């Protein structure tokens, strides 16, 4: 453990103007506050924040960050408060400490809720000041180094899994590869102990059998480049055990089949020498096609720059070589921590695009599981590169679609997307993008995100924005139902009510706004009697029995019934405009719309029934048919021709029965109204290809 004077000397070595007294006060404060607390290893607890501060000095970070590292656990684990820290160490340190502090003391939350809230607070603080992330990563790294002292295997595995899923990818996204690799290795040891032991054992065996093979190859590379007049540094190492295991799992191969387990780093003076060295290596040894990557012309999203290639050394050994300048190497290993510049007052000089995306995800996520899912999507790193027609570059996960691209460009563009062109060709929005694709988004101001997009959107930002838009639309539809029901309720009251009565009712029912009240009425969280009593106290005194209460007097007109929103068209009867309809309303659920003669209505005795009617502007729905076709060539094509001639779009076609001489199909059709559907049924019955056709 670093002694007090050693820590201060480290800081003063690279920051002579640092406040030595402040550093000493912070060291003494954390020792006093943590007092006799012990870690699982038996060491004094204050040894942990001191070691975290030591990691921060290795990154040569400013004094506020060092002090934050020393104090980062005091609010969570001692009687210290943020206000006390602000008084003793200033507002910047207090803000940073508060950002790092977890919310684990909230006992009423479930494990996933605690994890999500911790992550939410942490990411919001990080988006304001990246130093929060740097301290948190160092905190997690030191905890992982001492994880083996924890006796509970379940707890060790939980911490390791959280590290692998959240913190190692975060370290990668800010380019701190040294932290990422060590976190992954330590987590891998806990999560897959047998695989860890096997791979590290195999690597040790290769090391002993091969003797100085890594050194020999490094020397050969250096000599080849020196002969070309290049001044280089070459270092070699075996691949990371977790990296090898991941490659084995992804490719479904054994350890013996992984041939490129050696990696070499070549450091040169400038960018031109990177490409010159690459040419020399490719002329000296055979390169492996498909394994060359140029991260200098197209850096990774975290700023990583390098040239990667794979070679076959002496016709036997496959090796990976990374070529970069010395400055690139320094920035690549420690990422944003190596070159993050701060203005006066501690604000970051500039912002990182993916941090803004994470903040959008925080705003859009509705529940803990959704937040964790979308955030993990946002920080994992398998990427492709796609371009706008004007040449702007966007990095997306593999499997991303034009919808993901549209939301990456701008949230409003994603919400208005109706189609896309990839490399000039019209494609569906669910089409996966490839590396280098030029993507043009076709938009419409009248368009809005669709619930079905969640089936193929893969980025956390897109999925969070879609869910938020869907929830807003659903809330608006529920509020509309509630307002129409409210109007019905007020007409049944013994006196006319105005704005004052409504405002008083909102207060009595403890809602924040008129819209909240309408949503509660529309979602059946309030019944008619509660609303009447809140508007006119005493108005229900003479209504002892629920069956005696005044009921709805006229049908509510509805338009644009959207599956999955406030209204849901029942799949048992598939009502279309022209059918007489009724709605079943259950607490907390959308209104399920049935045709009045639907047999399933008998199951809705526990639901609140709403008399509905179709709005004149309703533009169609999906009807379902059952058609029995003769089993002979061309009958299916003839049925499809009838649909096309009647301008009906087939949404789904399924063969349900195959018995000679008939084939039975269920067909879902987009139709304008009941008359349109009836004409189609009549046309089918008149066809020689169709034995029988009925609406179901």
Description:
- The chain is of the alpha+beta class and 696 residues long.
- It is 47% helix and 17% strand.
- Strands 1, 2, 3, 4, 5 and 6 form a six-stranded mixed β-sheet that branches. The protein has a five-stranded mixed β-sheet with strand order 8-7-11-9-10. It has a five-stranded mixed β-sheet with strand order 12-16-14-15-13.
- A hairpin with a 2-residue loop joins strand 18 (649-659) and strand 19 (662-671).
- Helix 3 (47-58) packs antiparallel against helix 4 (63-71).
- The longest helix is centred in the C-terminal third of the chain and has 32 residues, at 460-491.
- Mean pLDDT is 80; it is low at 103-109, 337-352 and 560-564.
- It holds the Pfam family TGS.
- It catalyses: GTP + ATP = guanosine 3'-diphosphate 5'-triphosphate + AMP.
- Residues 45-144 form the HD domain.
Quick rundown:
GO terms for molecular function: GTP diphosphokinase activity. 47% of the residues lie in helices and 17% in strands.
Would you spell out the secondary-structure blueprint of this structure?
Blueprint: H1 4-14, H2 20-34, H3 47-58, H4 63-71, H5 74-77, H6 82-89, H7 91-100, H8 111-128, H9 131-145, H10 153-173, H11 177-191, H12 193-210, H13 213-227, E1 233-238, H14 241-251, E2 262-268, H15 271-284, E3 286-287, E4 293-294, E5 307-313, E6 317-325, H16 326-334, H17 336-339, H18 353-364, H19 368-379, E7 383-387, E8 393-397, H20 402-409, H21 411-415, E9 417-422, E10 425-427, E11 437-443, H22 460-491, H23 499-508, H24 514-522, H25 528-535, E12 556-558, E13 567-569, E14 581-585, E15 591-595, E16 608-614, E17 621-630, H26 635-645, E18 649-659, E19 662-671, H27 674-686, E20 690-695
Parallel strand pairs: 2-6, 7-11, 12-16, 13-15
Antiparallel strand pairs: 1-2, 3-5, 4-5, 5-6, 7-8, 9-10, 9-11, 14-15, 14-16, 17-19, 17-20, 18-19
């Amino acid at each position: 453990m670093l002694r007090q004077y050693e820590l201060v000397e480290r800081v003063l070595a690279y920051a002579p103007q640092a406040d030595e007294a402040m550093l000493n006060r912070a060291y003494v404060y954390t020792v006093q506050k943590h007092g006799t607390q012990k870690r699982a290893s038996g060491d004094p607890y204050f040894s942990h924040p001191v070691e975290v501060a030591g990691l921060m000095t290795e990154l040569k970070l400013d004094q506020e960050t060092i002090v934050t590292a020393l104090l980062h656990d005091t609010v969570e684990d001692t009687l210290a408060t943020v206000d006390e820290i602000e008084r003793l160490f200033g507002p910047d340190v207090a803000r940073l400490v508060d950002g790092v502090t977890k919310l684990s003391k909230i006992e009423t939350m479930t494990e996933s809720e605690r994890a999500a809230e911790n992550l939410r607070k942490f990411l919001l603080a990080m988006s304001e000041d990246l130093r929060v992330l740097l301290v948190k990563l160092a905190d997690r790294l030191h905890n992982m180094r001492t994880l083996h002292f924890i006796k509970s295997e379940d707890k060790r595995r939980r911490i390791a899994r959280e590290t692998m899923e959240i913190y190692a990818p975060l370290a990668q996204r800010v380019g701190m590869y040294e932290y990422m690799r060590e976190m992954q290795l330590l987590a891998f040891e806990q999560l897959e102990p047998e695989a860890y032991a096997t791979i590290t054992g195999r690597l040790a065996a290769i090391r002993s059998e091969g003797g100085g093979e890594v050194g020999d190859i490094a020397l050969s590379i250096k000599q080849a480049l020196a002969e070309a007049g290049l001044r280089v540094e070459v270092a070699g190492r075996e691949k990371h055990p977790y990296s090898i295991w991941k490659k084995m799992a992804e490719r479904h191969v054994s350890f013996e089949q992984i041939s490129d387990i050696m990696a070499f780093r070549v450091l040169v003076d400038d960018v031109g020498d990177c490409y010159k060295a690459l040419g020399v290596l490719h002329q000296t040894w055979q390169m492996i096609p498909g394994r060359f990557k140029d991260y200098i012309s197209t850096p990774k999203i975290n700023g990583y720059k390098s040239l990667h290639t794979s070679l076959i050394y002496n016709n036997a050994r496959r090796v990976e070589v990374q070529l970069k300048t010395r400055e690139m190497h320094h920035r690549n290993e420690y990422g944003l921590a190596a070159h993050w510049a701060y203005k006066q007052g501690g604000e970051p000089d500039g912002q990182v695009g993916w941090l803004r995306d994470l903040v959008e995800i925080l705003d859009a996520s509705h529940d803990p599981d959704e937040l964790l899912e979308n955030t993990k999507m946002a920080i994992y790193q398998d990427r492709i590169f796609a371009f706008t027609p004007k040449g702007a570059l966007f990095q997306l996960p593999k499997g991303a679609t034009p919808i993901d691209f549209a939301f990456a460009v701008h949230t409003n563009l994603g919400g208005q997307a109706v189609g896309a062109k990839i490399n000039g060709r019209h494609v569906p929005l669910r089409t996966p993008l490839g590396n280098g694709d030029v993507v043009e988004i076709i938009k419409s101001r009248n368009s809005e995100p669709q619930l079905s997009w969640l089936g193929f959107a893969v980025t956390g930002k897109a999925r969070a924005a879609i869910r938020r838009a869907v929830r807003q639309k659903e809330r608006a539809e529920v509020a509309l139902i509630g307002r129409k029901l409210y109007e019905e309720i007020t007409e049944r009251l013994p006196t006319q009510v105005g704005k004052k009565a409504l405002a008083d009712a909102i207060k009595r029912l403890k809602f924040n706004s008129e819209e909240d009240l309408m949503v509660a009425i529309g979602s059946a969280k309030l019944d008619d009697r509660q609303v009447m009593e809140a508007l006119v106290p005493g108005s229900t005194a003479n209504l002892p029995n629920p069956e005696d209460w005044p009921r709805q007097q006229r049908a509510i007109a509805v338009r644009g019934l959207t599956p999955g929103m406030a209204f849901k068209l029942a799949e048992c009867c598939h009502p279309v405009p022209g059918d007489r309809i009724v709605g079943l309303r259950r607490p907390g659920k959308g209104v399920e719309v049935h045709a009045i003669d639907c047999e399933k209505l008998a199951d809705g005795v526990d639901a609140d029934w709403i008399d509905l009617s179709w709005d004149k502007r309703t533009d169609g729905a999906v009807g379902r048919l059952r058609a029995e076709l003769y089993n002979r060539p061309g009958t299916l094509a003839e049925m499809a021709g009838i649909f096309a001639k009647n301008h009906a779009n087939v949404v789904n076609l399924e063969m349900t029965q195959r018995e000679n001489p008939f084939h039975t199909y269920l067909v879902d059709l987009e139709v304008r109204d009941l008359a349109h559907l009836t004409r189609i049924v009549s046309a089918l019955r008149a066809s020689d290809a169709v034995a029988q056709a009925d609406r179901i």
